[in-house]
């Protein structure tokens, strides 16, 4: 059925204006004034912003990790994402050495197909590069439309790959038109420091942060950037948490390297002191990289404003406090890393960023949607409000206030890392390809209605805004 959105303020990464949006067959068919409403359902967006659906480029749904599995799967996770104004997620498909990539991808299709309530794509973890992997890569890119690869530089003996793998992945990505993503921390040195901490009897959650100092994130970020320059390839650094890493990204970009950076809400508003909370509460705040000293937050905000960091991912990776996080009660190395963020990504950035004057409204849209669409081969089908684009649209009330709480969130976990935080601005209704998923704050979507997205190859020019200098 046709829909006509009226009376809202449309915000894209570059413009803010008042107009009506006509939706037909899941797409935006017209944008203008006094559009014919014949046969259309009228959606009144009075007092609201009308923004492109959020694209979360960093989620871990239904992912085995640390001897357990994330609490949110593709159903609860994408439902919570929709409540938060996200209409596309790109999830990390894990692989293991020796296993055909095809098998891992099939596993991820099986996890998501019947469950996702919004559209989704996959990034593919590269654990090793060998002849079989090289043979499979064209299939992965051309048939599966997976055009981004993830290399872990940390989690020794679990996910960690060596520099040889990283460099070969960068070379292959350049050849095939893919973007390489890195978890940038020096896993070898972290392994040494964590073993020493445990041997010294330092087992509380705070030692998770103390054994992963920012220098090791900066070092790994710089190393990955250097290898990217050598390979003349392209790199996206996930979950940047600190000044050391921002500096390395800025340095690489100033040299003309194609290096992009993402941060996450937790690094913008929480800090290392949370890990010292009593009664093992600190475990709720165990992420890798860890939360940092508070002064890093200003560096991250400035990097978002100046464009040195380009996206905001959630790094959704949720574990219950009781029964999962407490696996590490007597040993911080056994606390599953990660937290529940998928739902509050937009609200936190809007409230702390736009409302507090740290970033503009257009930057908010770019950071939460448009830039990820461009970097990950979804633009302009996703990531903007334009004629011909998918009608993935969020009607966002910029004035409403709420307090974040596990009591009211839609994620499947038993706590919220931002419990008690007051935010201004929240999605009221969310459409995925023209259909309501959330309507007047009520879920009306359907598991299985989300479509798998085959993404276009990395395009070196696409990620850049018109008014921005090319980084080459
Ligand atoms: N970030 C985190 O602590 N957990 C999720 C896995 C990862 O992204 O490293
Ligand atoms: Zn990571
Ligand atoms: Zn992650």
From TrEMBL:
<dbReference type="InterPro" id="IPR050378">
    <property type="entry name" value="Metallo-dep_Hydrolases_sf"/>
</dbReference>
<protein>
    <submittedName>
        <fullName>Dihydropyrimidinase</fullName>
        <ecNumber>3.5.2.2</ecNumber>
    </submittedName>
</protein>
<keyword id="KW-0479">Metal-binding</keyword>
<keyword id="KW-0378">Hydrolase</keyword>
<dbReference type="InterPro" id="IPR006680">
    <property type="entry name" value="Amidohydro-rel"/>
</dbReference>
<dbReference type="Pfam" id="PF01979">
    <property type="entry name" value="Amidohydro_1"/>
</dbReference>
<dbReference type="GO" id="GO:0004157">
    <property type="term" value="F:dihydropyrimidinase activity"/>
</dbReference>
<dbReference type="InterPro" id="IPR032466">
    <property type="entry name" value="Metal_Hydrolase"/>
</dbReference>
<dbReference type="InterPro" id="IPR011778">
    <property type="entry name" value="Hydantoinase/dihydroPyrase"/>
</dbReference>
<feature type="domain" description="Amidohydrolase-related">
    <location>
        <begin position="49"/>
        <end position="437"/>
    </location>
</feature>
<comment type="similarity">
    <text>Belongs to the metallo-dependent hydrolases superfamily. Hydantoinase/dihydropyrimidinase family.</text>
</comment>
<dbReference type="InterPro" id="IPR011059">
    <property type="entry name" value="Metal-dep_hydrolase_composite"/>
</dbReference>
